[in-house]
Amino acid sequence: MSKFILVLIITLLSKTLVFSQTAGDVLERGIKLKNEEEIIIRFVNDKFAYDRGSEKIRFIDLADSIFLAPGSAVKIYLHPLNPLKYAHTTSNKVIIDQIDEQAGKALGSIFDLLEIVMPTTNPADAAAGAAPDCDDQINTLKAAIKALQDSLAITKKEEINGLFAQLESLSFDQESATISSLQTIEKSIEPIKSHFTKIDASIVKLKQDINKLSCQEYDMFITKYVYNSLAKEMTELKNQLYKRVTNLEKTYKLVKEVQEQASGESGKPKWTIALPEVPSTVGKVSVYTITINESGYHLENGEIVESLIKEKAKRNLRIRRFGRFIPEVSAGTAFTFLKFPKYGTETDSLGVLRVASAGEEIFRRINFTTMINLNYFINNSSVHPFWQIGIGVNSDFPTFFTGVGLRLNFPPLRRLAVAAGYASTFIQTLKTLEVGHEVSGTAELEKDLSYEFQFPLRPYVGVQFNF
Question: Is the domain of 126 the same as that of 30?
Fold first, then answer.
């Protein structure tokens, strides 16, 4: 009978074990959020820091943490990062061609082709009736090609790389400084674009002049074909050079979008990026992982290229619905003084079997089988008071405990608890029989035994460790 009661009690109490497995982490690293408080995360110098949306923002180091939310969700924001160095979501792919060698070859071939198609004019032929404007037309085309050659030699590579370096160096620490720097960079991009716009206009004009070319001395089909080929080659060279401008504009736009995202939107902390809300449901824990990756773009051999994605840092945040009392299951030892009466049978001098006292079993130390501590949560505290209730077993007799104590949370006593209270145990009692009564056998005695709580309650002192 006693063993059945013991198994039943232990089965019921042990169900709380799963519920409180992480209580130690909650108590030691739990961070209680007040109503309307938010989590603002910042990643600086390869380290995470956070603030809870206070009026005077003060960032402190962020480890893998547990946040205790008072409501149904937690708003999380990320201080903006330079997207040319870091990303917390996705990355864009940029394909860069190696153009320097191609540009050199193209420019070198221009005048080689010109020598082929430009025959030397014989003065005698001219005097014999050549159209007086043929040489002027050819010279105009040659001058236009020479001017385009000079313009295309100005690649603007150093200016483009310098502006990219400015974009890459933006720290995003202050909103006003970031916006001001972007405005300056945007203004500096315009002259570079204007340079290539003028080249475009010159190429268009060159093609128009080629189409207008009309000289009886030359085969117009071959001459126009060669000059149009030169114009096409210059167009391709310009397009290759302009890819640097395109990549610069892409990276500028990427940085600008992050700045606008951090600056815009009402109802959020200033200069942050809103992340998805994290649900906080009673009985459940949300595990929120934020990862910072090295990604974006960098200069390699003088060209803007995409960086390989590489994990830089990661933090796991557990969001748990706040409760003032944190349940925790633990084991330990209680020191008390309990007596357990025993009964048996004996045969008297006449040979009659009678009920007899088998003495008492005394316990001064009892191991906790299951003990639930309801810890009172105090933010950033090294000591947590608690109320406890539990059960311990020595021999066949279960003992109930209830009391109060302190859970210590500082070295060298980390995760040690001391408690004091009162204990009561089940004891065997006789329902109808008494010591000395005649019985037919031990079966009759066991049938008459019952189990009752012992009163008065006995004091105990308990020690618990290794939660």
Answer: no
Bridge-based pairing state of the strands 310-321 and 60-61: unpaired
Residue type, 303: E
Task: Provide the residue range defining the domain that includes 216.
Answer: 100-263
Contact 213, 144 (CB under 8 A): no
Q: Are residues 316 and 332 in the same domain?
A: no
| pLDDT beyond 60 at 158 | yes
Helix/strand/coil for 379 = coil
Q: Are residues 254 and 287 in the same domain?
A: no
Nearest Cα neighbor of 154 from 108, 202, 103, 188 is 103
Residues 151-154: contacts with CB within 8 Å, 24+ apart?
A: 151/195, 151/198, 151/199, 151/202, 152/103, 152/107, 152/199, 152/234, 152/237, 152/238, 152/241, 153/107, 154/195
Between 93 and 312, name the one with better pLDDT: 312
CA distance 442 to 352: 13
Question: How many domains does the chain contain in total?
Answer: 3
439 and 375 part of one domain: yes
Respond yes or no on whether the N-terminal peptide bond of residue 279 is cis (omega within 30° of 0). no
DSSP state of 267: S
Question: Which of these ranges, 25-39, 126-140, 210-224, 251-265, has the smallest mean pLDDT?
Answer: 126-140
Contact assessment for residue 442 and residue 353, using Cβ atoms and an 8 Å cutoff: no
Do residue 240 and residue 114 come from a single domain?
yes
Task: Map tokens 């706040």 to a residue.
Answer: 322
Alpha-carbon 461 to chain mean position:
45
The per-residue pLDDT for range 326-346, each reduced to its tens digit, is 888 888 888 887 777 788 888
In the chain, what is the straight-line distance between the N-terminal and C-terminal CA atoms, in Å?
A: 32
Residue 81: CB atoms within 10 A of its CB come to 21
Q: Give the pLDDT band (50/70/90) at residue 198.
A: very high
CATH number at residue 137: 1.20.58
Q: What is the mean pLDDT of residues 253-257?
A: 95
Length of the chain: 467
In a 3-state reduction of DSSP, which class is residue 10?
A: helix
